[in-house]
Design goal:
By secondary structure, this protein is an alpha/beta fold. The chain is about 40% helix and about 15% strand.
């Protein structure tokens, strides 16, 4: 086994151990190869990170502002101190490497993905896609229950083979060098991945950008998609009528709450949707800036009463943040907002999703629409109001999400 080197523009390298001597995308005629992949960040990158953390310049806050103006500086100082002195990337790297990982080249891009097959031969393949500022780290708590259900209180009949790609430009998936990788194009790439793995019929699941991409997969590859499960369910109000018609008082109140959220909490969308490269320069140069940018979203979007460590450990938060830092993907991951905003009209625009669809409705989800608004676009066959949980369902409430995924697809196998 030899080591393939991925060069960093700053001279730091990230090395990954591959199951082949040379990446298949560099070999003529081997473009369709699926290559085993092991994460191995070089020591130089970790040394560089520690030095940057030690020399960080953190601004002084206003007195008593807390999280009002953005990331709480007191909390950030604690998190950075832990990152520098106590966080063990190698331990987290070993945990991630317990999951079978691969890369393959599709449409000229190297795509990284987890692919764990269940021991049950009749397991249903399930494509699961993350979002921003998440990653495959979000899914580490659900891989075992989905692929080996009997160990986690399920039945053999509940088993899945899971495929969890890193979106292009995220983590170890290659960043596109040309514009145009909007959710529809990414969905087409994911459909090709499932075909390459030999899956002629599969389920699809996602939240955040994973919800948008998964919906597109259900459109572009409908003959092969058994069902669509979402944990961020949203859509426009029916045209030509009062949007409040038919809604309960509770639903109307929740719509108002989401409108306030959109007004106060979506500045990041405007920046990443218009000038992602400018922001990306700053985040790619400062790990503390990157941590502040990401952790504030985890704190605001989770069902945690304002304390992210009620549902995430520091190690969990920092593993996800470190993945962005060590792969230098802060800028390339942010571009999905620009690509989505500036995408040309999709051929699937306005088309109804006829694939059976389930919505796992977590109460603190940041983007939400009433079921009545969605029924015109989706063939909704299951709607579950969850007792708790926020935007990062697989990370926050893995048991609730897994139970709902099992129940939905049990009717579609």
């Amino acid at each position: 086994m030899r080591t393939a080197i991925r060069h960093w523009s700053a001279g730091v390298v990230a090395a990954v151990l591959l199951g082949t001597a040379v990446p298949a995308f560099a070999q003529p005629g081997a473009a369709d190869a699926v290559r085993p992949f092991t994460i191995r960040i070089p020591d130089a990158a970790l040394t560089d990170l520690k030095a940057r953390l030690a020399n960080a310049r953190i601004p002084e806050p206003l007195q008593g502002d807390g999280w009002t103006y953005g990331t709480d500086i007191g909390y950030l100082r604690q998190l950075v101190a832990y990152w520098r002195t106590s966080f063990d990337w190698r331990a987290q790297e070993r945990k991630l490497n317990q999951f079978e990982q691969f890369t393959t080249t599709i449409d000229g891009l190297t795509v990284h993905f987890i692919h764990r097959r269940s021991q049950h031969a009749n397991a249903l393949p399930l494509l699961i896609t993350h979002g921003w500022p998440g990653s495959i780290v979000e899914f580490t708590k659900i891989i075992g229950p989905l692929t080996d259900p009997e160990v986690y209180g399920g039945r053999a009949a509940d088993a899945f083979h899971v495929v969890m790609p890193s979106i292009p430009g995220f983590a170890f998936s290659q960043a596109p060098r040309e514009p145009g990788y909007d959710p529809a194009r990414i969905a087409a790439l994911e459909a090709k991945l499932m075909a390459r793995l030999g899956y002629a019929r599969y389920g699809v699941q996602g939240g955040d950008w994973g919800s948008i991409i998964s919906t597109q997969v259900a459109l572009v590859d409908a003959p092969h998609v058994a069902g669509l499960h979402l944990n961020m369910c949203f859509g426009a109000a029916p045209a030509g009528s009062d949007p409040n018609t038919g809604l309960t008082d509770r639903e109307r109140e929740r719509v108002k709450q989401r409108q306030v959220f959109q007004a106060e909490e979506t500045g990041y969308q405007q920046i990443q949707g218009t000038k992602p490269q400018t922001l990306g320069v700053a985040l790619n140069d400062s790990p503390v800036g990157l941590a502040a940018w990401i952790v504030e979203k985890f704190r605001t979007w989770c069902d945690c009463d304002g304390d992210p460590e009620k549902v995430f450990t520091k190690d969990e938060l920092l593993t996800n943040i470190s993945l962005y830092w060590l792969t230098q993907t802060a800028a390339s991951s942010a571009r999905i907002y620009y690509e989505s905003r500036h995408a040309p009209p999709s051929p699937t625009a306005g088309r109804r999703i006829e694939v059976p669809t389930a919505c796992a409705d977590f109460p603190k989800e940041i983007i939400w629409s009433p079921r009545r608004w969605l029924e015109g676009r989706y063939n909704i066959t299951r709607w579950t109001e969850m007792p708790k949980g926020g935007h990062f369902a697989a990370f926050e409430q893995p048991q609730l999400l897994v139970a709902d995924v099992r129940a939905f697809f049990a009717t579609l196998r």
